[in-house]
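User: I've been trying to design a sequence by hand for this structure and keep getting stuck. Would you show me what you'd pick, starting by listing the structure so we're on the same page?

Assistant: Good idea, let's start from the same input. This is the structure you sent:
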């Protein structure tokens, strides 16, 4: 499989090259040049366990990997790291099927990709005979940071530096990151919001002289954000899995469509659902759900992406994003691979913080539905489904549930729906426990205990004993100093 840049001005790569490179030198994002088709019967996929199915889905994208290499990557990623026996359970509640993607080491869906990506990275480095240490730069709105730290912890030939917005992630997320272990992990908060962190991180990745400077020290940069195609592909597998489970459970007959609703921020997760659809998963509508930062909702309704708006810190912080990076990939695919058009739209975004989709892209947007939920609506949705079904969901998942319900009511579309459930309710315990009517706890950590006692749902292993862990990364810096922080970190490793 060949991967090319959405902006069309960078060399084509195989998966290994694209994973190591992270973001293309022309600032575009790597995309596969075609979508391989799922060739087996759904009955066959339904009979597979998660790892076998993931290998089937990923096989055509990893052409240069041997059968054994791919299998070793997948085994390493998903064996013993996920608390659910089948890795990704599909749970029926409130009229929908929740795809619980959060049973991994950090209790959020990003574990699904970040458990696998380091194995892709080391396999790719061996293939390319890469002798430099790969320094992974991550900017995070909360959940990516810890999942990446866990995934890359003590992985030979790599180090990882994580930036998160100061006071804009949940206390649990902050404590997870500041206590991250591993001899190759570095973390600091920055004074600014997520978009500031991501924009500066991208600038560092694209800074050629700085790349040469660290190159002389034996390092090269890569990204573990969902800009890296190595993040997207593992996510495609669980949408194929979701459909296979829907068939297995008799919720649909093989070939009948489903709707998929995804709580979206940087647009990576829902883009993976789109890839699964292109590979042959029968989907009627992909539903893009946003919180109060509803730039995506507006985009799907108007075809205009307008980032000139107020930024809100909400109770679903992992979706507090205004510049949604992965949308660029959708623009490329819907626009018939027109890289010049992508360049024009992205230039306009950089210059004017705004762009209008081309007519070709607009035509493609009709396959999607979109909506958003306010903070109050999120809490009401959590309380409602707990009261009716004794099902606990987190604030991000609640965004999707609310948006799907509203969509179904407005349109009368009764297609069976899969809701991507992206975080454990314990990750946002104070909000969730308030929503189900528990008294306010002293802090987030006490809320975890209270929630567990009230609901009887056990606390994920990644969140146990969190409060007593030792803080190893206490730093907070202005965002202008991110580059210096990277330089000092690499020098400090010499
Ligand atoms: C990252 C994240 C999202 C948004 O996913 P994208 O791929 O960025 O759209 C939603 N929910 C949770 C819990 C997340 O961590």
């Amino acid at each position: 499989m060949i991967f090319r840049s959405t902006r069309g001005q960078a060399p084509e790569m195989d998966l290994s090259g694209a994973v190591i490179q992270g973001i293309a030198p022309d600032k575009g994002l790597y995309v596969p040049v075609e979508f391989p088709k799922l060739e087996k019967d759904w009955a066959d996929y339904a009979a597979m366990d998660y790892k076998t199915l993931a290998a089937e889905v990923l096989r055509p994208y990893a052409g240069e990997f041997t059968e054994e290499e791919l299998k070793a990557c997948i085994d390493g990623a998903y064996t013993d790291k996920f608390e659910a026996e089948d890795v990704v359970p599909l749970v029926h509640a409130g009229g929908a099927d929740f795809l619980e993607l959060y049973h991994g080491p950090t209790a959020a869906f990003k574990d699904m990709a970040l458990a696998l990506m380091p194995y892709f990275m080391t396999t790719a480095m061996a293939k390319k005979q890469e002798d430099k240490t790969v320094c992974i730069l991550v900017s995070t709105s909360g959940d990516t940071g810890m999942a990446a730290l866990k995934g890359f912890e003590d992985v030979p030939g790599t180090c990882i530096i994580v930036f998160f917005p100061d006071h804009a992630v949940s206390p649990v997320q902050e404590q997870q990151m500041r206590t991250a272990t591993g001899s190759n992990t570095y973390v600091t908060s920055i004074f600014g919001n997520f978009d500031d962190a991501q924009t500066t991180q991208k600038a560092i990745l694209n800074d050629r002289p700085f790349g040469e400077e660290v190159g002389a020290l034996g390092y090269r940069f890569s990204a573990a954000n969902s800009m890296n195609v190595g993040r997207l592909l593992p996510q495609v597998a669980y949408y194929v899995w979701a459909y296979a489970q829907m068939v297995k459970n008799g919720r649909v007959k093989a070939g009948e469509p489903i709707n998929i609703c995804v709580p979206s921020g940087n647009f990576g997760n829902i883009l993976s659902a789109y890839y699964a659809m292109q590979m042959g998963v029968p989907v009627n509508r992909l539903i893009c759900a946003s919180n109060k930062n509803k730039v995506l909702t507006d985009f799907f309704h108007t075809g205009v992406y307008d980032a000139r708006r107020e930024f809100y810190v909400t109770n679903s912080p992992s979706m507090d994003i205004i510049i949604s990076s992965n949308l660029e990939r959708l623009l490329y695919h819907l626009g018939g691979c027109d890289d010049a058009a992508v360049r024009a739209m992205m230039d306009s975004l950089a210059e004017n913080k705004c762009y209008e989709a081309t007519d070709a892209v607009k035509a493609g947007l009709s396959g999607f539905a979109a909506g958003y939920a306010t903070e109050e609506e999120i809490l009401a949705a959590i309380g409602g489904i707990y009261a009716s079904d004794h099902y606990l969901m987190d604030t991000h998942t609640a965004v999707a549930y609310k948006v799907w319900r509203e969509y179904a009511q407005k349109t009368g579309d009764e297609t069976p729906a899969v809701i991507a459930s992206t975080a454990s309710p314990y990750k946002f315990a104070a909000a969730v426990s308030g929503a189900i009517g528990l008294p306010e706890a002293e802090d987030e950590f006490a809320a975890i205990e209270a929630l567990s006692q009230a609901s009887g749902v056990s606390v994920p292993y990644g969140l146990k004993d969190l409060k007593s862990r030792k803080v190893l990364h206490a730093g907070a810096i202005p965002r202008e100093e991110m580059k210096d922080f990277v330089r000092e970190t690499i020098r400090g490793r010499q």
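That's my pick for every position. To get oriented when you compare it with your attempt: Residues 229-248 form the longest helix (20 residues). The pocket of pyridoxal-5'-phosphate is lined by residues 108-110, 143, 226, 263-269, 318-319, 396, 422-423 (CB under 6 Å).
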